[in-house]
Amino acid sequence: MRYCSQEVNDNDKIDLHTHSNYSDGTDSPAELIRKAKQQGLSWVALTDHDTNLSWEPARKASEEYGINLLVGTEVSTKLRDISVHLLAYGYRPGEELDDLMATARASRIERLQQLTANISADYPLKWEDVKRQVAGKNTTLGRPHLADALVEAGYFPDRNAAFAGPLSTRAKYYVSYWAPTPVEAIKAVKAAGGFSVIAHAFSLTRHVHPHDCDIAQMVAAGLGGMEKDHRDHGPEERKHVKELCQKYGLVMTGSSDYHGAGKPNCLGENTTTPQMLRRILEALDK
Question: How many Cα atoms occupy the beta-carbon half-sphere of 143 within 13 Å?
């Protein structure tokens, strides 16, 4: 089941970008679904980084709490030196996309180990300190777990402060990791019957962004939409996304990018319109 079978109603409140502790969120899938219900959401998409292992516990919770679930993944991709995150909705597991994500997860672990070693020269930490922040063996590891270790050790007050300091992509400690290109990932999502949306493409927290010609290549590969309403997009960025979506006939989404206590983002702070969700579900049914 890629999504619940209920119809989308005109008054539904829809959040299509959230994270659990299967990646860098702090809530279990069940806790996330429960909180989404409490916040009055009708639909939620769970989109953990480079994994679909959180889908099953989220499905069970969605049935328990009576909330509609659209399964998905936030797929890591690299465009030149630009990190582009791709929200992949409703795809079939077990195909090429799973292989790409498995390779990216392995590279993430190697990167995080090297990054920990680099940072420890000035902020003494052990790899065991980082592993202690990870919820379980199925968790996709990332820089937020190192941030949590730095916070626990008393070096920084929260994740944001750690990311503004030694975990910045501009810091001397930074280490990159392997990920497929956006076009490779989009084609893999499409081959697996899924629907792809670029997440926060022009985020104000990032220093480099895709060019419009890059977006055109992604559209040619099968890109279905772009995330417009996100707390990291200002008015100009939202306007730019809207123009691109209108030009190419793409779906425009809005989402919280909720991470539990890992970020200040609140469930439902940005939402997707029922009309846009219908377009996604209709595409998945084809």
Answer: 20
Three-state SS at 15: strand
Q: What is the DSSP letter of 131?
A: H
What distance in Å separates the CA atoms of residue 197 and residue 215, rounded to the nearest whole number? 11
The correct CATH number of 112-164 out of 3.30.43.10, 3.30.2400.10, 1.10.150.650, 3.40.50.150 is: 1.10.150.650
Q: Name residue, tokens 């996304």.
A: 241
All residues at 6 or more sequence positions from 229 whose CB lies less than 8 Å from its CB, including other chains: 238, 252, 253, 254, 255, 270, 271
Query: For 188-213, what is each residue's pLDDT tens digit?
Result: 999 999 999 999 999 998 878 999 99
Helix (H, G, I), strand (E, B) or coil at 209: coil
May I ask the CATH class of domain 14-102+178-285? alpha beta
